[in-house]
Write a structure and sequence with these properties.
Helices cover 29% and strands 28% of the residues. It contains nine helices and 27 strands. The strands form eight sheets. The chain has a four-stranded mixed β-sheet with strand order 7-2-1-10. A four-stranded antiparallel β-sheet has the order 3-4-6-5, with helices on one face. One of its GO terms (cellular component) is cytoplasm.
């Protein structure tokens, strides 16, 4: 049935998004059908972009719709809109033009309109019908079945009524025919009768008819005594008797009753049928916060004490070699910038903590701030546990950016796991590595089996080894790892790095000395 009945068709056209709501309504009797207006993106000769709305969802008043947009723009809830104009008329129909700002992204503005206005709304389907005198919510197949049964009942009752009326009319016509066949006797009897009652009784006895037929004869006009009128009465009787036979046949044959239902439905289609107005489009998922945020490059700054922010890249201008730079984040005393990188607002940022857990956030989740602002502490964004500090931050577009993630602890344990093992959106974070007593996470890097890993200790010791599966086998997410480097007393792991042939290692000391060494050495 659902293959034929695709979904509701609303008089105001618009779009139905997805089939799930319709399927729910047709399968259970209840459902929420998501509707959208029709929006087109137009660009004028000046290069200004406008959104043109030509259809609204069913039952959405376009005046209230425009007022709602204007109020939300004024209150700052809708961004990127510079003007709205109602150009609707009888000639062009509905036409609402929304001008967007030059720096606004049309798709983002449309998604905001879907989320915050009635450009996208839901139609609650409740397929309620009276069945045997009781309200019931019906599936589509039940609704059709009960509708057909009701139409059959209507046909039976209608035919029964018509048959009764036809029999009554035929009965009178038979009496009139008898009167016309004995016209002279009838006229003589009526003229000789002193009262109507006497005449009626005389007709009943003369013609062998009942009181109803006798009264019809008395009520007959004189003009009907003409020969042509007599033939017309005989023809009417024959026609009604044929009609009676047909009506009795309908009542006796259910297949004829169903045929009448089909014919009447076909007549409705011929009289009122037209092309579908409401188009059904594939669902693209619910509009999420991510759909409302433009993809753009930002500079992410995270300090050693955990303050984070994102800043638009155009706030950092390019300078020549001798330039002195610009003022960056205003930091508290003894705080330094630990992580500084450029990424997309839609990139994922993985926060690895000293206690071996990993949290994730989208770049757009970080507070947007000016170049000199300090930002907000990540503990306000992520559910850090007490005493947790950031050990490493990694930016990825997705969990297929690299085959493996390698973690290293202060005591020299190293673990390689599949990056996809860390794909979790749990707000409380997940375990990245099981730490042993008196240990903490120091580093995290992405790598492939073709890379080499370099561990460097606080006292200047280092070790380089391959990241192949033979040298460092992959392990599960919640494991401790293997010993990657051993230390002398009072030494510890300082950093974990991915190195490749043809590159250099730069080592800097707290005293200001630095040394560059080829990786091959």
């Amino acid at each position: 049935v659902m293959g034929r009945v695709k979904g509701p068709d609303f008089p105001t056209a618009g779009l139905i998004v997805g089939s799930q709501g319709t399927a729910d309504a047709y399968k259970t009797g209840r459902g929420s059908i998501r509707m959208r207006g029709v929006v087109e993106v137009e660009e004028d000769s000046r290069g200004r972009t406008s959104l043109v709305i030509t259809e609204l969802p069913y039952q959405v008043n376009h005046d209230n719709f425009i007022t709602s947009i204007a109020e939300q723009v004024r209150d700052g809830k809708l961004a990127g809109i510079s003007n709205i104009e109602d150009q609707s008329s009888d000639r062009v129909g509905l036409r609402i033009v929304i001008e967007i700002k030059r720096d606004a992204v049309a798709k983002v503005v449309i998604n905001n309109l879907y989320k915050h206005t009635q450009l996208q709304t839901s139609f609650g389907a409740n397929m309620l019908a009276i069945v045997d005198g009781v309200p019931r919510t019906l599936r589509l197949d039940q609704l059709i079945r009960y509708y057909v049964d009701h139409q059959l009942d209507v046909i039976v009752r209608r035919t029964t009524y018509r048959l009764r009326k036809a029999n009554e009319r035929a009965h009178i016509l038979r009496g009139l025919v008898k009167a016309l066949d004995a016209l002279d006797e009838v006229i003589a009897l009526i003229r000789a009768s002193e009262t109507v009652d006497i005449a009626r009784a005389g007709l009943i006895e003369l013609l062998d008819i009942d009181e109803i037929q006798a009264q019809a004869i008395l009520d007959m006009q004189l003009r009907r005594l003409a020969a042509l009128e007599r033939q017309r009465i005989i023809d009417d009787l024959a026609k009604i008797e044929a009609e009676i036979a047909d009506l009795e046949d309908i009542l006796a044959k259910p297949e004829r009753q169903r045929g009448i239902v089909r014919d009447e439905l076909a007549e409705i289609v011929d009289r009122h049928g037209d092309d579908r107005r409401t188009r059904i489009i594939a669902a693209d998922g619910d509009v999420s916060d991510e759909d409302l945020i433009a993809r753009e490059d930002v500079v992410v700054t995270i300090t050693e004490t955990g303050y984070a922010k994102r800043t638009k890249t155009d706030l950092y201008r390019s300078q020549k070699r001798g330039g002195k730079g610009v003022q960056g984040a205003g930091l508290k005393q003894d705080d330094i910038v630990a992580h500084f990188f450029v990424c997309s607002t839609h990139d994922l940022i993985l926060f690895f903590t000293t206690q071996g857990r990993v949290y994730r956030a989208k770049a757009y989740d970080l507070p947007e701030a000016s170049r000199t602002a300090r930002g907000q502490h990540v503990a306000n964004l992520l559910a850090f546990q007490p005493e947790e500090r950031i050990a490493q931050v990694i930016q990825i577009r997705g969990y297929t950016d690299a085959p493996y993630l390698v973690l290293a602890t202060r005591n020299g344990l190293v673990k390689k796991s599949k990056l996809t093992d860390f794909d979790s959106n749990r707000s409380g974070g997940i375990v990245a590595v099981n730490l042993r007593d008196n240990d903490e996470l120091v580093g995290a890097v992405l790598c492939s089996a073709d890379d080499d890993l370099l561990l460097v200790s606080a006292n200047g010791q280092s070790i380089r080894f391959s990241a192949t599966d033979e040298a460092l086998r992959p392990m599960g997410r919640a494991t401790s790892g293997v010993q990657g480097m051993r230390f002398n007393i009072d030494d510890r792991l300082l950093s974990l790095n991915v190195v490749r042939e043809g590159t250099y290692l730069l080592v800097a000391t707290s005293g200001g000395y630095a040394k560059r060494t080829a990786i091959e050495e």
